[in-house]
Design brief:
elongated, 566 residues, 44% helix, 3 domains, 28 helices, alpha+beta, single chain
Length: 566
């Protein structure tokens, strides 16, 4: 492999957040690796998906969402994959991206993002406040195999992964399980988050384990407010689908201009809605500071009574009914009688009366006349009214900070065409057939660690240089104790067939094929003795490892043949 390529290809093995930012093709390579993995295809045999063919597309997607919620946790433990330093990583990436660009766009190198976003103490939320000096965590993403393997770790009930892992898992499952075409699955990344936009129906986002439909985007709940943070407060760093990508830093874009326009139009439609009474009521749910301007009046046993809006919204927390929709009367029945008044509250707008206004007066945030007509109905102080209208306009319409298209349609990305219901074997052969014409397709085989289809050098480079967990965990063990520890470890690989785990995956999940254990031991030995002579003779069922004067053998079921000198 050419020297200028080995850093990128070894990064496809480790798949850290910072590596994906510098080498954007890695994001789609991870997605393709999950599509080629047998794991998600096995989901189709699960009874949970037994009647999938009879379900509507939206029901399929909700079925998938619940499966992912049940089987995967969102993992924010940045210590899982160990530590490195800013200096080390900046030196690695210097041929590809300058330090100023990285530090201005990546949280591990000093990025602070929008001031409002970080006023939420998002660094503490992610656990980044522990890494204020030059020591930083390897914020690695995981293939589905590594996600599933978290169930082996203490204190984990099921599989787990961070946002990039979950977004690429979701994207692969949407294609395999829900029959969503690749061209409608857009992968998006911001400096602190990764999610997918699906151009299906009115559109929806996958956000960690959950999905956000257009109706949900405008429901004003706390959960949705959190789901909106990245798009409201960060620049979108990169956008992908099967036709290519657009990146905020690199001047060349492989996605055709027409396809990028389609994406932006679809996202724009998803993020904008007319103002109806329901939308106004949803807005008040999120912006509770304006609830004191409103009251709700209704008839009760033939008499009118009134309740402060903030009291009605407070009761939503304990009920399945909402102020904003046709369940409002049922909500009012849940409210204690002493909360009501027999006369209108002074200086408050009656929400049901405002509801009548919306029936004949559609309001759009860009239409000054209709916004003025709405303002005339908001009987509160001008200062409150203007602040409320501005916040309402922001609530119903969001224009994300998209990356600039740049030089569109650059070479190096042949469109990846995988028709729906294509068998997995044909999916793999199709991706393999375009490796020379599509860098993401080529890198996908490194991300899935198929050593029959990959140069070993990137895998070995990553094994020796970017697996600090096992080295740190075993530093107090002498040689014999180290050998015995690996001998007692379980012998099942987390990857099927000729695919290999990295040393820290073997250590973290305490299981590995004999070949994987030999490479783990080699990485530890090389760290202890940089000038050591290490030879690994790999045969289909046996691995012979020479560590200076020590000779060890391991059984393997990987079926590989390779002679390695480290």
């Amino acid at each position: 492999m050419k020297t200028e390529n080995i850093e990128k290809y070894s990064s496809a093995i480790t798949l850290s957040d910072m590596e994906i930012f510098v080498f954007p093709e890695l994001l789609y390579a991870l997605f393709l690796a999950n599509i080629m993995s047998p794991r998600i295809w096995k989901w189709r045999d699960d009874p949970w998906f037994s009647k999938l063919d009879k379900m509507s597309p939206s029901k399929k997607i909700n079925r998938l969402k619940q499966y992912i919620i049940d089987h995967y946790e969102f993992n924010l433990d940045l210590d899982t994959w160990g530590l490195t330093t800013q200096e080390t990583e900046l030196e690695r990436f210097s041929p590809f991206m300058d330090a100023k660009t990285i530090s201005g766009s990546n949280a591990l190198f000093g990025y602070q993002g929008d001031k409002h976003y970080f006023s939420l103490d998002i660094r503490r939320h992610f656990g980044l406040e522990k890494y204020d000096d030059f020591v930083i965590p390897y914020w690695k993403t995981e293939t589905i195999e590594a996600m599933d393997a978290f169930a082996r770790k203490d204190n984990y009930r099921v599989g787990a992964g961070e946002c990039v892992s979950l977004s690429t898992l979701y994207a692969a499952a949407l294609y395999i399980i829900c029959d969503i075409p690749l061209e409608n699955i857009f992968l998006m990344a911001t400096p602190l988050h990764s999610q997918n936009f699906i151009a299906h129906g009115k559109g929806f986002l996958t956000n960690n384990r959950r999905i956000v439909t257009k109706n949900m985007w405008f429901n004003g709940t706390e959960l949705t407010d959190k789901a909106q943070r990245a798009l409201r407060n960060e620049q979108i760093t990169m956008v992908f689908n099967n036709t290519g990508y657009v990146h905020s830093v690199y001047p060349d874009s492989t996605m055709p201009a027409a396809e990028y326009d389609r994406f932006k139009q679809s996202v724009g439609d998803y993020l904008s809605t007319p103002i109806t009474f329901e939308i106004l009521a949803n807005f008040l749910r999120q912006h509770s500071q304006f609830q004191q301007c409103f009251q709700i009046c209704h008839n009760y046993h033939g008499k009118k009574r009134w309740v402060a809006a903030e009291r009605a919204y407070a009761y939503e927390h304990a009920a399945s009914y909402k102020v904003s929709d046709n369940t409002r009367d049922k909500l009012l029945e849940e409210i204690d009688t002493e909360e009501f008044y027999c006369t209108p509250l002074p200086d408050r707008i009656c929400m049901p009366q405002l509801e009548e206004f919306f029936k004949n007066n559609p309001v759009r945030h860009l239409d000054a006349d209709s916004m003025a007509a709405l303002g005339a109905k908001l009987d509160c102080t001008n200062e409150q009214k203007n602040e409320m209208l501005a916040a309402l306009a922001n609530f119903v319409h969001l224009e994300p900070e998209f990356p600039t298209l740049g030089n569109s349609g650059s070479k190096g990305w042949k469109k990846i065409e995988l028709p729906l219901r294509m068998p997995r074997t044909e999916v793999i052969s199709t991706i393999e057939s375009i490796r020379e014409e599509n860098s993401a397709a080529d890198l996908a085989f490194y991300a899935m660690r198929d050593m029959t289809r990959c140069d070993w050098a990137p895998y070995l480079k990553a094994s020796l240089e970017r697996n600090p967990v096992a080295i740190e965990a075993t530093k107090t063990l002498n040689n014999n104790d180290l050998f015995q520890t690996l001998e007692k470890m379980e012998t099942e690989s987390i990857y099927d067939g000729p695919r290999l785990a990295q040393p820290d995956e073997v250590w973290n999940f305490q299981t590995g094929d004999g070949l994987e254990k030999a490479i783990l031991l080699s990485a530890i030995w090389k760290k202890r003795k940089p000038n050591a002579t290490i030879k690994i003779s790999v045969q289909p069922t046996l691995v012979e490892l020479t560590l200076d004067a020590h000779e060890l053998t391991f059984e393997t079921s990987k079926g590989l043949t390779q002679e390695i000198d480290l």
